[in-house]
Queue: 2 jobs
Job 1
Amino acid sequence: MLDEEAPLSYMQDPTQKKAMHASITSQTLLPFESLPRFRRGSVGLQLLKDSIYKALFGSLAVVQARGAPPTKRLERKPTGPKTIHFWAPTFKWGISIANVADFSKPPEKISYPQQVAVTCTGLIWSRYSTVITPKNWNLFSVNVVMAGTGIYQLARKTRHDYFSEVQEVPAKES
């Protein structure tokens, strides 16, 4: 049994203790890295990490690419923030958000041509975003939302114009 007062053998030297603390606190990826036999840079640690990543992601390519931080991996993607494939759909979300904000508008103020255009744009570009290379899931999602909001607005306008009963106010006889 270990004596509580006796320091561990790998921590007897103060410089080793400081180095161990630095390796634990700086960019610790997995909790078992603090164990002495899994010190940063050891072969055992690398094998353990690789097996965990393979189990989680099913691909060694992900394990080999994990060296870059997530922001760098996003930048390197063909639909990353350094391309138009990222920014065009991102700004297109503004149209969908504006259409959602129009849900509170009275149906009389909804425009058929505008909502038909929003719906058709959403449907056409949703299909297109799945057949182009690189596949752009941001473009797909914004267009699905755009088509959905356009269909909802058209349904509101149609229901109001053709299926609501207008109650006539009887005129006063003077």
Note: The radius of gyration is 30 Å.
Job 2
Amino acid sequence: MPSLTVMTEIEMPHNPTAVLQARQYLRKELPLKIRTCAKQALVYGTCVSEWNNLRKGDCEKEFQAFKQCVQKAAVKI
């Protein structure tokens, strides 16, 4: 039976430059882009806070609007 080698995250081959660029994007650029979604975040947060017993789907419309805004903001590089 052939032996299997398990690679940990540290051992996996990667591009250090790409990793650094992704970290920089997540730490610095993405938050600045997402701030354009403040209105949608406020509407969604207000909806969530108004429910005493929040259940999945109760604020679906508001969540989808916020999610769509974040997704659009994230792809603008």
Note: The radius of gyration is 19 Å.
